[in-house]
Write a structure and sequence with these properties.
single chain, alpha/beta, Aspartate Aminotransferase, domain 1, 15 strands, about 35% helix, binds pyridoxal-5'-phosphate
Amino acid sequence: MEKRILLSMPHMSGTEQKYISEAFEGSWIVPLGPHVNEFELRLQHFLGENKSVVALSAGTAAIHLGLIMLGVSRDDEVICQDLTFSASCNPICYQGAIPVFVDSEPETMNIDPVVLEEAIIDRKKYTGRYPKAIVVVHLYGMPAKMDEIMAVASKYGIPVLEDAAEALGSEYSGRKAGTFGEYGALSFNGNKIITTSGGGALICPDKECAARVLFLATQARENRPYYYHTTIGYNYRLSNISGCIGCGQIDVLDERLARRRAIHDIYARELACVPGISVQMNPSDKFNSNFWLSTIQVNPELTGCTPDEIRVALADKNIETRLLWRPMHMMPVFEKYPYYGNAETGRRLFENGLCLPSGSSLTDEDILRVCRELKACCK
Ligand SMILES: *Cc1c(COP(=O)(O)O)cnc(C)c1O
């Protein structure tokens, strides 16, 4: 059996150990410490735009605190992209708020600005109130159509929270994903662009908001000699040891991004002439996806096989692929919530889509092998 090719594996730089040794020598084996602060500063520098970053225990925690900062609470409605991972909308429910799902457009696979505006107008008509926030996702690293989305959001005065968990380093009009909205969430889970073995960060508009987020993430403990609380807190801080891993990872962030994009280039080139297979591309020069995962759309009439049949055939060759995220309105747990999307674009993208192995540790030969096996199952 040939070597196993996985979808997206953690890829260590080797310098993580050095930062961890420093932490051990300084006895910084605690939640707070210099490395988690250094990691935040380096993320801030990378993102630019004068943002303040707070490192947290998970991307999901970042989305949750972002919603809290936007004042989302019980019975508020929050618009969320329908085609996404459930972690984009679970925190809406943690707050006792109501997710309102909005369909994607086919180019970026992200929230459709036209349907978004329809949904906002309809919710106002139906409930008398505008939704409290909009959760936009940059799926698989592809930036959403932020000009159009921000125009709609500001027209109705609704803040945007970007779920940039998959989009660290992606750019739109030369500006980093996660810096357009009021808040932006990043993830450093094991399968993302860089990992802290589990972690996330919230990109905040300024230092004051970041200080409040840090306060909430560390049990909302007031500055007094005894424990004193005026608000509900969370235990969402990234540990310093995870911060060490993050520092080692950010050392090589540019290389990791270049490699993901190079892998996408190989797929785009090798699969260009395969009938019934189309590789997702940047729709225009405005978009610069990190191509966290390269994805394809399959036309079974031309390939003779469905995405799931391809998945099973490739698994047999020791190659891991994955179907796209299944739209939220198709999940039993979220079926009862409002959904806007007459064209069901997200459902179609899901039914025809497949994610290809894209980890930055994969070699050119690995990717060529995936292409060969993929072509072999399309006859
Ligand atoms: C990974 C991911 C998250 C959650 O991040 P965690 O760090 O795993 O909590 C949220 N949204 C999307 C789109 C993701 O891919």
